[in-house]
Every structure is written in structure tokens, then in C-alpha cells.
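Cast an eye over this sequence plus C-alpha cells and walk me through the fold:

***
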Amino acid sequence: MKKKAASAPILAALAGAALLGGCATPAYVSPVDVTRFVGDQPAFLGQGTIQIVPATGLSAESLEYGLYRDALRLELEELGYRVVMVNGSQVARLAIDQYVLGEGERRSPVDVGVGGSTGTYGSGVGVGIGFNLGGRPSERIAREVSVSIREAGGDQNLWEGRAGMTATANSDYAADAVAAPHIIDALFSDFPGTSGETIAVE
């Protein structure tokens, strides 16, 4: 039996749906760009006790800091450290910087307290973040995480690393709960890494 032709209203609806589907912004996640710097005493890395502290201006009570701290704790334990709350023989200072990139690479900072440098080799920014992830799918969330490790009471870093990535607002990685373990894992890949080298980690 010959099929009936679709009515005009149905055809119009189907065309509209196809048009909307064609305009949907695909989710995107960049590789993680990682740079590490290794100090003069790499033999001290990956052993003993270590304490995680937030960079200046980053609230230790914020949900976002807790997610990155927990991911960092697991990573440090895998490297051979024993993570303690206080009086560690080494200190890992964690800094987080997050902002939204709109169309035309316009940077929209999050209106929160901002901290300063993480240490000897480079700089990082500590932020307490509260993104509204209900924005336009074309917007990209950019993150930079920095960790410096030094002996307690010391003034020189044993190691420092920075990792940065971007993800569109419609990606799973727009959420800190997903992004935190991913970017921390990339930061410590092949630890301690080659000093001064920048690599891309998928």
C-alpha cells in the first residue's frame, strides 16, 4: 500500500527539528597542557609525609577546593607520600584559576577572592569558584591548576607543576567533579617529568 504523504505541518516540524539539530554546538574538551619544573633535590620527592594547603586567597572550605584537594591527595598517595592534615615534612600548595571564555575569546572572570603566586618557578592563582553552568553551550570554561611541593619551612620548591585545559559548557568536563581528577592526573603523569618541558595530555 502506498504511504500517505506527510502533511505540511508535520513537514515543517521535521524541518525545524533538523535545523535545530544542525545548529547544536558539539561538546569539546581540550588536551591538558602540562608544564613541570624540578628542583635540585628530586630524590626527596615521592616519600615521607606531606600536607596539602590552599594557595593564598583560596578558601579551604569551598566545595571546589575540596574536589581538587581530594584528587590531589589520591595522586600524592599513589606517588608514595603519606598525606597528613598537619605537620607534614613537605607541603603541597594547591592553586586553582577558572574563568569563562565567551565568543571572540572574551574572558569573564569569576567574581571571587584571588590569591597569589605558588612559588619559585611560576605563578598560579587561587580562587573560590562558583560557576553557573547553565550558560551558552558555545562558552568554554578554562581551568589552570598549579601545585608546588617544598619542604616544610623551606623557601625553595622541590617541584612545581601547572596544568591547563578548556571545556565547553555542554561537556561533562564543565563540572569540577569530573574535571578535577582529570586535570590532576594529567599534571602528575610521568612524575616528576622533564623540567621546563610542556606536554599535552589527552
Remarks:
- The longest helix spans residues 63-79.
- Residues 1-22, 109-134 have pLDDT under 50 and may be disordered.
- The first strand starts at residue 32 and ends at 38.
